[in-house]
Amino acid sequence: MTAADVRHMAHALALGRRGLGRVWPNPAVGCVIVLDGRVVGRGWTGDRGMPHAETRALAQAGEAAKGATSYVSLEPCVHVGRTPPCADALIEAGLIRVVVPMEDPDGRVSGLGIERLREAGLTVDVGLMAGAAQEAHAGFLLRVTEGRPLVTLKLAVTLDGRIATATGESQWITGEEARRVSHALRMSHDAVMVGAGTIRIDDPKLNVRGMGAAGQPVRIVVSGSQTLPSQCRLTEKTEEAGPVWLAHGQGAREDAVWWKMAGAELVPVSSSEGQVDVASLMQNLGTRGLTRVLCEGGGALAASLLSAGLVDQLVVFSAGKVLGAEGKPSVGTFGISQLSMAPGFELIEQRRVGADIMHVWRRGNAH
Fold first, then answer.
1. pTM for the whole thing?
2. Rounded to whole angstroms, what are the CA distances from 319 to 18, 156, 296, 329?
3. Using 50, 70 and 90 to split pLDDT, how confident is the model at 366?
4. CA separation for the pair 315, 26 (Å, rounded)
5. For 11-24, how does the pLDDT look when each residue is reduced to its tens digit (9 = 90+)?
6. Is 54 a catalytic residue?
7. Residues 6 or more apart from 58 whose CB is under 8 A from it?
């Protein structure tokens, strides 16, 4: 592999990331077509998975695709769905080489796309920037291999780990720049999820604002038995609002009836003693096609996800404020009595965002 190969694959991966939060249940794929060292076509997966990245890149390249090399951030599909197989499209366009970082673990593809390309006489190189591709497709890979979406837990906290004063005041702990980055986070996820307590206390909209977003994430409320308000911002019908899903346990059935009448989609989930089984919830969301979920609280839901080992990434915004022990903690209780029992995360990024600090942590055994 050459430096040019690395550069073009990095380009394809960057293009693919443009689709994050908008293409589920499909993977967010990027494709770059190069002829004689010049990029003649590029594309990324369209909204809700159509058209595919290869289709868009081939349309842009036109006749220049003949004799070219294609860099695709995931193995081209070989099955017939809403679009024809991308492997066949690359063959018919006359390409002579395809570079992919990894196979697609989807049982309908899983090496078959590479095999078809090679049978047609194309050179196929596999493995370039495989680690970066696994990171870029982490949500899709988790849904295919484990049946659940990737979970990002976002916390906006004071220096002593508090998210609100004793009276519940929380707006705003962090500054405007951090809130803008938070909206970008929402935009890169398929869904934004909060617990019922957050709805009662903060009444959030949970949509993307100020980012020029073409679409909106699914807005998920998780309620085991807590009472939900019948009137709130999530039940307001506005053009810029995304769909609302209510993931409810048995104790929230009465609220679920009203929320369904208000337009929410109901997601019944196993529960015990008023607490939703978050492992069952994640499997349910994976079945519905979600690949990336951003959890924005509250403390009880965060604790449940952490204790179940379901938080793949932590994004923490720390503000230069201190509220003291009477302030509300960012994470609820989950029975840690020894340090060895605490969930472990690895720091992968840290930077200043306005007056605040953003640090990103990845679970030790996360994809």
1. 0.91
2. 29, 8, 16, 14
3. very low
4. 24
5. 999 999 999 999 99
6. yes
7. 33, 41, 43, 65, 89, 90, 93
**pLDDT tens digits, one per residue of 253-303:** 677 788 888 888 999 898 887 788 999 999 999 999 999 999 998 888 999
Mean pLDDT, rounded, of the chain: 89
Sheet holding 345-353, edge to edge: 265-268, 244-248, 218-223, 191-195, 292-295, 150-157, 313-318, 356-363, 345-353
Instruction: Map tokens 């970082």 to a residue.
Output: 101
Whole-number Å distance between alpha carbons of 24 and 47: 8
Two tokens at 276? 């939703």
Which amino acid makes up residue 288? Answer: R
Distance CA 153, CA 160 (A): 18
DSSP-derived secondary structure for 53-77: HHHHHHHHHGGGGTT-EEEESSPPP
Tokens of 38: 């010049």
Angle (CA) 28-33-39 rounded to 5° is 115
The kind and range of the H/E element at 123 are strand 123-126
Q: Report which DSSP code applies to 224.
A: S
Tell me, letter by letter, the H, E, C secondary structure of 95-115. CCEEEECCCCCCCCCCCHHHH
Pairing of strands 356-363, 30-35: unpaired
pLDDT tens-place string over residues 41-78: 999 999 988 899 999 999 999 999 999 999 999 999 98
Count CA atoms closer than 13 A to 201's CA, side-chain side.
Answer: 19
What's the CA gap between 345 and 313, in Å, rounded?
8
Q: What is the mean pLDDT of residues 155-170?
A: 84
- If we measure between CA atoms, which residue out of 194, 244, 201 comes closest to residue 222? 194
Measured distance CA(236)–CA(226) in Å, rounded: 21
Q: Which residue has the tokens 């078809």?
A: 116
For residues 52 and 164, give the distance between their C-alpha atoms in angstroms, rounded to a whole number: 44
Neighbours of 290 (CB within 10 A): 25
Q: Is residue 31 classed as helix, strand or coil in its secondary structure?
A: strand
Cβ neighbour number for residue 336 with a 10 Å cutoff: 13
Residue closest to 141 by CA, chosen among 313, 292, 343: 292
Structure token pair of residue 328: 């509300």
